[in-house]
Amino acid sequence: MNVQIIVDSGTDLPKAYYNELSIEMVPLTVYLDEKDYLDQVDIESKTVYDAMRDGAAPKTAQPSPESFHEVFKKYADKGKTIIYFGLSSELSGTYQSATIAREQILEDYPDADIYTIDTKAASMGYGLIAYHAAKLAHEGASVQDILDLANHYVSHMEHIFTVDDLEYLQRGGRVSRTQAFVGSLLKIKPLLHVEEGKLVPLEKIRGAKKVLRRMVDLAKERGEDFNQQTLAITHGDDEENAQKLAELLRDELQPKDIIIYPIGSAIGAHAGPGTIALFFLSKTE
Q: How many domains in the chain?
């Protein structure tokens, strides 16, 4: 394989895929209890969720350009084509760090073949893009074929998600303090999605039981050809509801496959425990 796929830990990809598809991962940093941890390396997401339930407010930081430079250089030295897929630049400065590192590498390796792609996605929305690109790379596909597939996924990736407590979104500036307070009183569950890389409120659902049902309905409205799609569900330490959502999807949409995995520490530090997210491809116009 002469094409090396590189990602950051905002993909929330299952760890097995990194080895299986030879994907290199650059971790974000999570700050918790006055300590620094590398996401997906030396902290488990459940540790973050348990701390948040106890009142902790973890913070995150993007990888430095130097972190990306080190990884890019390793593969530039081998003459490999490098494709980095990045967490949405609207949600993190991680993609910017990678872009700076690319420019530095090209100063020393003018002939290096390096692509940096802003997926405009997060969690397994981002992860699915990188996963399918890595599968093609592993099979020996051309760089152009990999980029074409990736750009199609970037243009059509849907995120539908809900959070258990609006307070976590309020901390991150996604909803106002008043909205969080009123929403908690009324037991309102927000549904959100992603537009051009930004988190955007979609609907408000009263009652947790109705949320999963509505997520399936939205998938029906927005997606197609589910029997040819691999869907993804990520969750903030809520395997039970993730499995309930998967069961509804299998019964009604018969997808090719469903990947279920916990949301990582970096994304989870902002979304909070109890988050449920669904990712699929939208209809082709």
A: 2
